[in-house]
Amino acid sequence: MAITYEDAVAKLHEWTDSPALRNHARGVEASMRRAAHRYGRGEADELRWAMAGLLHDADYDRWPDEHPRRIVAWLEEQGEPEIAQAVVAHFSPSDVPDLTTLDKALLACDELTGFVMACCLVRPDGIRSLTPSSVKKKLKDKGFAAKVSRDDVTNGADRLGVDLAEHIQLVIEALTPHAESLGLAGAARS
Q1: Which parts of the sequence belong to the HD domain (predicted)?
Q2: Which of 17, 48, 185, 188 could lock onto 126 through a cystine, CB 3.0 to 4.6 A?
Q3: What secondary structure does DSSP assign to 47-113, as a single string?
Q4: Does 189 map to a domain?
Q5: 126 lies in which domain range?
């Protein structure tokens, strides 16, 4: 890899001041790490996929009207064309004619991770008792986390060729070890 994980974290912190957007990036990173083992080549893909999750919105806080051009340009300058392509694909899949598994995984993890995190925030016990069926029920409530594209959530799983409930479970499992640091543990902490 041309960049290190530390380089990716530094870039995220340099360009992203919003704690909520940093949390989202860390959540998508966790989901992408888990996805690398389920949909990719495991350890061989984990770091690249994690950095795609971490950096996919790194320019949004400072330059929302230019997103994702700035982070894509930086990744390309750093010699990371695969991550750059995944970031382009997460924003505009039609701009990438041949989506790779990494591209599809980022598409599938981004919106869903944000939605799962939102579900945790309204539950007294946070992520602890969250199930795919409770997430799917919330997806039907158009007023809840209204900015999350339901089409992106369902199309993401479809593109990967996986069952939505199984993919939701993957995201829940990925976020659970990070519940405290991401603020997903709920009020009833043990």
Answers
A1: 23-111
A2: 185
A3: HHHHHHHHHTTTTTTT-TTTTTHHHHHHHHHTT-HHHHHHHHHHH-GGG-SS--HHHHHHHHHHHHH
A4: no
A5: 5-180
Q: Among candidates 4, 95, 96, 93, which has minimal Cα distance to 50?
A: 4
Q: What is the pLDDT along the chain (190 residues), one digit of tens a residue?
A: 899 999 999 999 999 999 999 999 999 999 999 999 999 999 999 999 999 999 999 999 999 999 999 999 999 999 999 999 999 999 999 999 899 999 999 999 999 999 999 999 999 999 999 999 999 999 999 999 999 999 999 999 999 999 999 999 999 999 999 999 999 999 754 4
> Residue 143 sits in a domain of what CATH number?
1.10.3210
Amino acid symbol at 20: A
Q: Map tokens 């974290």 to a residue.
A: 9
Compute the 3-state secondary structure of the chain and give helix, strand, coil in percent, each to the nearest 5.
Answer: 65, 0, 35
Tell whether 81 is covered by a domain.
yes
Question: Number of folded domains in the chain?
Answer: 1
User: Residue 185: inside a domain, yes or no?
Assistant: no
- Residue 71: how many CA atoms within 13 Å on its side-chain side? 37
Q: What gap in Å lies between CA 55 and CA 36, rounded to an integer? A: 16
What is the reported pTM? Answer: 0.96
